[in-house]
Amino acid sequence: MPEWSWIGRLLNFCSAYYTTQLVRCGVFSFFLMGLVMLFRKLFFTGQTFMRGLLWSSFLLIPFLGRLKLFYENQAVVEITGWITHKIMTCLWADRIYMAGIFITAACIFRKRRSLRKAASRMKKVSLNNMQIRITDMKVTPFTVGLLKPVIVIPEVIWESYSQEELMTVVQHERTHIQLGHLWFGFAWDILRCLLWVNPFLTMFQKQFRADLEDICDRVCIQRSGRTALEYGMVLLKTLKLLRFGTNDTPPAVTYAGEREFADMKRRMGEIAGFCPYRKRMCAVMAAAAILVIGTLLLAVHTHSYARCNESRDIMIGKYDNEPEIVSCDTEKLSQMISYDDRYVYVEREAFEKFLRENNANGEIWIMFGGFYKLPGLAGIAESCIYEGNSKNRIIQIPYESIRDNWYYKLLEICLRIRKDTEIIYL
Fold first, then answer.
1. What's the pTM?
2. Are residues 214 and 111 part of one domain?
3. Mapping DSSP to helix (H, G, I), strand (E, B) and coil, where does residue 4 land?
4. Cβ atoms within 10 Å, residue 340
5. Tens digits of residue pLDDT in 94-127
6. How far is CA 220 from the centre of its chain?
7. Sign of CA dihedral 79, 81, 87, 89
8. How many CA atoms lie within 13 A of 213 on its CB side?
């Protein structure tokens, strides 16, 4: 019978490794969400573009799970230490978290997929050489798809609007596409999946989308050359034609517009207060935001553990009816033990004295080198059995590296491991 236990070990390793990082990212996301909502209300109420840029700070969140402060900052250790300990020691917690990611992703992206399929079956029409889809659903115009976006317009609007009004509607949706808002929404959904333990990411996505909608409105008004009043009248006409909140509204319409009167009132207020903006200033703001995010990402990378951290630790274990760790004192053991790519070198007299002092009987194992993914989570090391029957002052023990083992090559693919050695769960 083939040995399949490696699959379980691999899954356990991956779930513990990624859950540990994602839960930490989730903790940060709570604080960041509070800051973003506070800044939106207190400092950037009337600054549309700045409100939108605030959300870009969430780009940092997925990269915070390996920060060294989780191990080196006493305050952070006290706050998050018990969470880390539970994740590392309770396999069921890791599996529940991974299951939550897959369930959330299935719910979110099933709706996206059903919407794309529905759009593919809609009637095609042409407007100024642009292909448009027509639907009989009572929704505001929306766009679906990432690589090949499709603009969908309700039939009642298609039949009631003039050519100029239809071009305004289409230009609004094309602006969403050009500004990358569809990709921003996709990234937000991925964040909701990975950090599903933070319900505020779902609760406040309405504000996230509203800020992107306001940006799109401002850009459309300035590009069209029309007044804010004319642009707003097109929206009001849409509100009169459509009935919001009907049962046939699809569950995952992308940028379908606000469905509640309070939201439309807020949006109309933003449009009424429109003032022309300077494109160069907006470009400078965007560049500054990119520079800040890039600098912060570099700082996070600098102060985080690498994906693979080389270990120079040496550990002694024994097997006498059951396995037991004798010593992990690398500083002391390195005075007696050294190694290269083919051999382990042991100073016999000093090492055997060490074994006697520690009552180490039975089969003695020397574990060395390798790497660790995160401190205390798991490590991988080479190993050999100590052969004490030699009378030489320095005992030279050959060992067979497991770097060519296919299982560890699989680990390299899954976890980007640079050194392939034996897994030791700590």
1. 0.78
2. yes
3. coil
4. 8
5. 888 989 999 999 999 888 888 888 888 888 888 8
6. 32
7. negative
8. 24
